User: Fold this.
Amino acid sequence: MNVRLIAVTHPLVEIQNENLTPEGLIAYCARVSSPHQENLNYEKLLAYCIKNRHWSIFEMVDMTIEIVTSRAISPQILRHRSFVFQEFSQRYAKAQNFEACTPRRQDSKNRQHSIDDLEEETVAWFADAQEAIRTLSVEKYNQALEKGIAKECARMLLPLNTQTKLYMKGSVRSWIHYIEVRTDTGTQKEHRDIAEAVKEIFISQFPVTAAALGWAQTAR
Ligand SMILES: Cc1cc2nc3c(=O)[nH]c(=O)nc-3n(C[C@H](O)[C@H](O)[C@H](O)COP(=O)(O)OP(=O)(O)OC[C@H]3O[C@@H](n4cnc5c(N)ncnc54)[C@H](O)[C@@H]3O)c2cc1C
Assistant:
């Protein structure tokens, strides 16, 4: 898994000879009807808008994140329909890498939960099983390509832990709700790890908004 910031809206509005920050732009747009649009203090404004669910102001700024994950997790990410995406195409390029997964025990009461307490023997068995599937699927996938079979067909031989890369662009509003939902314990751990990494990026880019949301930087 890898998560990397690749773009944030770049404001062109200058106040006191300095470009606004992305958060400053959110506040500037929020104050469209105010005579104090150039006010550079906006902590209270952003907190007020969050508290009163005035979400549209957070749609004035976008952030784009690069995510490297597995084909098991990317469909969950793609469900967040308010974002726009570009994903690595297994129809045009050869699949190369695989994401190893450390298994967890199924929670018998909650289907959306798993517990990290499997015996070492079971964990080792799962690692061997992944390696065996990977070796066989890579061998057959490469043979399929050598036989002239199209990549879009050959990929049917690949497991769900085949690595993929996505670019995910959305507004600050969408990222707030994505982070809230996907850092929750109801989300699969492999996806939660991505959302936690996105959260750290969000906090560094939008510190005033993050503080108003009560988000603190986690130690990694
Ligand atoms: C634990 C879990 C289990 C799931 N299980 C299934 C399943 O079994 N089958 C299945 O098909 N799908 C499942 N999903 C997917 C889920 O139904 C959604 O499709 C997915 O989370 C995308 O959310 P979204 O449609 O809100 O899109 P988003 O793009 O995240 O949000 C759409 C819009 O709504 C806004 N928004 C979201 N939340 C709020 C809020 N609280 N207040 C104000 N605005 C808000 C966003 O800002 C955005 O503008 C699951 C999701 C989770 C988290």
The helical segments are 22-30, 43-51, 74-78, 120-146, 151-154, 172-182, 189-205, 207-213. The pocket of flavin-adenine dinucleotide is lined by residues 55, 79-83, 112, 173-174, 177-178, 181, 186-187 (CB under 6 Å). Residues 2-67+164-213 form a domain with the Gyrase A; domain 2 fold (CATH 3.30.1360.170). Residues 8 and 63 are 4 Å apart (CA to CA).
